[in-house]
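Standup notes, protein team

Yesterday: finished cleaning the Streptomyces ziwulingensis set.
Today: AI-2E family transporter structure.
Blockers: none.

Input for AI-2E family transporter:
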Amino acid sequence: MSATLSSARTRAALRTTARVSVDLLLILALLAVSLWLLGRMWSVVWPLVVGLLLTTLTWPLARFLRRRGWPAALAASLVTVVFLLVAAGIVALIAVPMASQTDELTDGVGEGIQKLREWAAGPPLNIGDDQITGAVDSGMARVQNSVGSVVDAVATGVGTVVNGLVTAVLALFLMFFFLKDGPRFLPWLTRQLPGRLAKDVPVLVARSWNTLGSFVRSQALVGLLDAVFIGLGLWILGVPLVLPLAVLTFVSAFVPIVGALFAGFVAVLIALVSNGLTDALITLAIIVVVQQLEGNVFQPIVQSRGLGLHAAVILLAVTLGGSLAGIVGSLLAVPVAALIAVVWNYVREQLSDPPREPEAETAAPG
């Protein structure tokens, strides 16, 4: 006999599904409005985010000085100055080698292009010089026909640089104030919030701060180790632009998985153009070995607690962030995913049933 559907249970299931669907639509609408407001206020939010990331990186030094009796303002000022000096040194490490080796790299690129043309002219492609010249001429014609777009792109690039400088200055000022007045924030926030929020929000803020600080500092240390080992290998091989490539490796470490692939691709490309195929393959081998050491040795030791995120979740978060907001989205994807996990874990803790107390054993009748 086949069982018949219960009309009462069917209606109840449909009503439940409808309620859940309406709730999900309301949540999605609220999320869309929040993202829209975030986009409208991005000129203020972005310096705030950068300032927070810089604060998590520099707070240990400020905390060390404050525990040694330094005034808050003096400790924050010294840490800010030290950070500026380190940042200026990193910029110098990138700019000076690139300026001194530009001619060498340009010649190498020219030789590499010539080798590619010779390879393309032979079997199996058998592409003649006339075809290559025609393709180059066609590309030049397209560039000439889009002069206006190029000018607009240059203007946009100049505007981006100016906005970047403004963001950097604001982030530095915010970092100083966060280092100086940060410990007062949670007590102040507790006094401002009513009822249950006075307990929940400070706990979430404290957990989020610890997670964000753990991520930034561990990624910085792992990136430094990667930069040292990969830079040493490039220096032994005689690859040009060793310092800029090492700095690129360090910066790319803040974008897990994707950043390492990008930095490795750039290093292998420069080794191929400047030193040839053999050194490029050796460079690739060095990068693969270092990345394996990072994933299996450096990362577990440095980031023992971790973020609680699976590698697949990290990869999807970086991909989604990059598609939504480019480089900025890729940079912020993993911290945002980790903070969402913190909020979800706390909400789950609050919604879970408390553990049952063991029932008292009843005495057996005598």
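Follow-up from PR in the comments: Residues 146-158, 360-366 have pLDDT under 50 and may be disordered.
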